[in-house]
Amino acid sequence: MMTATMTPLERTLTALGQKEPDRVPFFLLTTMHGAKELNLSIREYYSKGENVIKGQVALQKKYDSDCYYPFFYASAETEAWGGDVIYINDGPPNAGRPIISEHQEIESIEVPEVASCRNLEKITECIRGLSRESAGKIPVIGVVMAPFSVPVMQMGFEAYLDLMYFEPALFETLMKKNQQFCVEWANTQLEAGAHAICYFDPISSPSCVPPELYRKTGYRIAKGTIAQIKGPTATHLASGRTLAIIDDLATTGTAIVGASALEDIGTVKAACNRRLSVLGNLNGIAMRRWTPADADAAVRDLIRKAAPGGGFILSDNHGEIPWQVPDGVLLAVSRAVKKYGNYPLDVR
Amino acid sequence: MKDTCSAGTPFRCLETLVVPALEEVGRRWERGEVALSQIYMSGRICEEIVDTMLPPGDPRRVNQPPMAIVVLEDHHTLGKRIVLSALRAGGYEVTDYGSGLTVDQLVERTVRGKISILLISTLMLPAALRAREAIARIKKELPGIKVIVGGAPFNFDPQLWKEVGADAMGRTASDALEIVGTFTAGAR
CATH no. for residue A31? Predict the structure, then answer.
């Protein structure tokens, strides 16, 4: 029996309710690609919120994605803390040198007020615009960096690991400050019209810290942070492995986990066991050299393994499609979702 | 362990204790059983052990081709730090070019340093792709150089290292140690 066509929001909410919608929801997480659509440089594109509104609207139409993704770039947050952003012509803007050069500076660093950060205002403006465009039909997904993960950009990975292992009091001070910022920034995006917040927390992944350390740190911080975010959240470990901490993630209050391409999506879905929905896990890096036939096969495989029963959103494994992936491959992914993803499924 | 790791037998200690330990950590990383934080700490511990027996600048270290390591274009330095620790723990002398170098800067420093083995670490895909230009220009000036690449883009796309013209790719720090060992065979 055919299911009546749903809006992207209905489709997504049905899948998150562990039921089968009309077809598999498809979140194509394109970001800087909007600059190509508007024929702007990446730097120009991100100079105004209205550019990203136009870009996201164009991308959603082009690929028939089931969400708007007003994520600019990860280093927008460290920019709010006073850091530099390095623009390149063919990739996401990157964080410059760390803003914390000595651990002791953590005591004196001031938490920025979201309302006074001009660069964040551009993102908020973009969310307001996309919320209007959505008219309640297309989910708008805001983004925050987890308090536990943002220090990699604030101070560098090595210095952060040293802090985590050897300076517990300063670590707690930084987490408290980061949590204050993260909660305010997430709630500002929700107030502007985001339907949900993607909580990027790659350092919590067993790829970055062992599960026993995660349980004492990233887990506790995620649980405390997510409890204060006034809307649904999806936890994304940005290509990092998830399996060893799925049971923990399921009790942080999050609704979705982003799966790594390093793990079998069927195994991740089984481990979630309807407590969490699964987002993923096309390999964005390998996608650059895919043919349309490769895209077709990869989508078919994911749907076969993870889509039965709902609880699955098809996406990439990192939360951002690389600039270098050809449009033809993304179109082939989109076509394949519609070819294989209609419920009831007929994919073996 | 005491017999193996006395100050008079540093290379015996490296070969029987330190290098096998790093290799085991590398194997567990490949299987998803250890985390980056543990690899970082194990590398630092090994580096400290070896530094006490074979301090940087020790003449027994320097009888090898000139080697350098760099993060191309950005400031994500953890991978470089882990590989550098493993190589130093393996008794190698390696010049650290730091992070955030552009292609022009890397070519200039590598050629000026007459480097024989260059290790390039990247986190972001655009930087990994930029390694292609750097490697081509460096090999034009230094045809005998060996270039080893590593980092997330190479792990997620196993064909990428060949595309950028590298001589080898390391998935782990112990891979880097093994590859450097092959390239320097007989040098010490």
Answer: 3.20.20.210
CB B87 within 8 A of CB B94: yes
Which residue of A75, A87, A207 is the best one to mutate when testing the B interface, meaning the one whose CB has the most B CBs within 10 A? A207
Residues A101 and A235: their CA atoms lie apart, in Å, by 29
**How many structural domains are present in chain A?**
1
CB contact under 8 A, A209 and B36: yes
Helix (H, G, I), strand (E, B) or coil at A54: helix
For chain B, the domains span: 10-183
Residue A328 has, within 13 A of its CA and on its CB side, a CA count of 7
For A332, residues 6+ apart whose C-beta sits below 8 A from its C-beta are A290, A292, A293, A295, A296
Range of the domain at A53: 8-340
Q: How many CB contacts within 8 angstroms connect chain A with chain B?
A: 83
Is the pLDDT score of A201 beyond 80? yes
Residue B5 CB neighbours (<10 A): 18
Do residues B128 and A88 make contact, with C-beta atoms less than 8 angstroms apart? no
Per CATH, the architecture of B10-183 is what?
A: 3-Layer(aba) Sandwich (3.40)
| Helix, strand and coil percent figures for chain A, each rounded to 5 | 50, 10, 40
A191: number of Cβ within 10 Å: 13
Cα–Cα distance for residue pair A255/A167, rounded to 1 Å: 32
A89 contact partners, CB below 8 Å, separation of at least 6 = A41, A42
Of B78, B126, B157, the CB nearest to A157: B78
Tens-digit pLDDT profile for residues A11-56: 999 999 999 999 999 999 999 999 999 999 999 999 999 999 999 9
The tokens for A305 are 């393994």
Cα–Cα distance measured from residue A138 to residue A11, given in angstroms and rounded to the nearest whole number: 10
Among candidates B40, B49, B48, B56, which has minimal Cα distance to B92? Answer: B56
